[in-house]
Write a structure and sequence with these properties.
Blueprint: H1 10-29, E1 36-38, E2 43-47, H2 53-56, E3 59-62, H3 69-82, E4 89-93, H4 97-105, E5 108-120, E6 133-135, H5 139-146, E7 161-167, E8 170-180, E9 183-191, H6 200-214, E10 219-224, H7 229-233, E11 238-248
Parallel strand pairs: 3-4, 9-10
Antiparallel strand pairs: 1-2, 2-3, 4-11, 5-10, 5-11, 6-7, 7-8, 8-9
């Protein structure tokens, strides 16, 4: 994509979103002692050894069309075994049901799914952002508000853009924006229960896309739960299909 006048294809958006996702894992790993992200043929593997990252960041995403699935899965299992990690998820795009079937045959079970969503920043919808009450985002407070207190204690805050919005004078919503190759990945979006249904997540996402455009980004991407798809669609994000997450059966 050479300019904003040439809209990216769905496949290009997907490839960009996947690359940004993996680079965001590397960024978080840079602040978590002992963590590392590896990219063997056919996959990207994030291995986090300390809590709280260990509880939800141990994910391996399979690149669609991987040539030697058996070898790739073997590498994933070996990597996590080497780090003593028993709980991890393997992400498979819904367009590859035969891969999901192979995982089930190897003793994995479906646990949950997220939808990949992306957009050209030039297609940002008209969303009211002027009423956002933003405060400086101290990382310690950001993680506490996001429900992952103590995450990545050595993370350099300068590597991403952190947003905290208030509701009624109280810190209430979070968003992390991470840029890679002119794509802005949007992560860690959350709102405290008392402030939900006020449009904070929609407004913060629109603001993040708008500011990413001023930084020279041409696309934005994220992973959405089924409940949040509508929130991001109102900003202009397109549904690119879901990643199914498989974990070891107990």
């Amino acid at each position: 994509m050479s300019s904003e006048s040439a809209p990216p294809s769905a496949s290009a958006l997907f490839e960009r979103s996947l690359a940004t996702l993996v680079r965001s894992w590397e960024y978080l790993a840079s602040g978590s002692p002992g963590a590392r992200v590896s990219e063997p043929a056919g996959a990207a593997i994030a291995a986090f050894v300390r809590p709280p990252e260990r509880e939800f960041l141990n994910n391996a995403v399979l690149v669609p069309g991987a040539a030697d699935l058996g070898a790739t899965l073997g590498t994933i299992e070996h990597t996590y075994g080497t780090h003593g990690i028993e709980r991890y998820a393997i992400w498979v795009h819904e367009s590859e049901p035969e891969v999901a079937a192979e995982l089930r045959a190897r003793g994995y079970r479906f646990e949950t799914a997220t939808r990949t969503m992306a957009m050209a920043v030039a297609e940002l919808a008209a969303v009211e952002i002027s009423r956002l009450d933003l405060v400086p985002a101290d990382l310690e407070e950001f993680w506490r508000l996001a429900g992952v207190e103590g995450l990545a204690p050595e993370l350099p805050a300068s590597g991403a853009h952190f947003y905290v919005a208030r509701s009624g004078g109280v810190n209430a919503a979070t968003l992390m924006a991470f840029d890679h190759d002119r794509d802005c990945g949007i992560y860690m979006v959350g709102t405290v229960p008392a402030a939900r249904r006020q449009g904070l997540a929609t407004a913060l996402s629109a603001l993040a896309v708008a500011e990413a455009r001023t930084r020279g980004c041409i696309t934005a991407s994220l992973q959405a739960t089924e409940m949040a798809v509508g929130v991001y669609a109102r900003v202009g994000f397109r549904d690119l299909g879901r990643f199914e997450e498989y974990v070891r059966s107990r």
